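== Folding the chain ==

***
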Amino acid sequence: MTGTPCPIVDKAAPGSVETAAKILRQGLVAVLPTDTIYGFSGLFPDCGQAIRLIKGREEAKPFIRLIARGEDIFSHTHAAIPHNLLAHWPGPLTLVVPVGQSQSAAFRCPGDQWLRHVIAAVGRPIYSTSVNRAGNPPLIGSAAILREFGTQIALMVVDDSPGGPPSTIYDVLSDKVLRQGAVNLS
């Protein structure tokens, strides 16, 4: 970015979906509210490196990909996903599934309808990862996010209603919970 503070849009404002989708389609990084916490967001696969640079995150650690509809997962994997897992979508459950010969990826269909509309308007998955520098706790409020990252992102969509706990991450192939979060799978 240019060092200039990014534009700020209220999530409830008319046209906020279109504004966010336009920024993402341009290949830029935005901070968007989710049903859990704020997330750095950008087009998959175009924005991975840009998000890593902002966060200071190592290359090997992947980002969650958000999808607009639960059934969109089957455009990315041929894995059999148990119905009891898909029943948690949309919602705070991230599923790690095989996406190639020896690769896997994490997908989530967020519970936030506004965010699903943004993803649908973009037309493909978007990355989402917590808003923080690598190794630090996630920033929660928009004011803290703007102080830390306001000149490094292209847009901040504000919704300071409390989010929930982070998503539960579940690996479909190993049948294991990798991170316990909002969804209890016991």
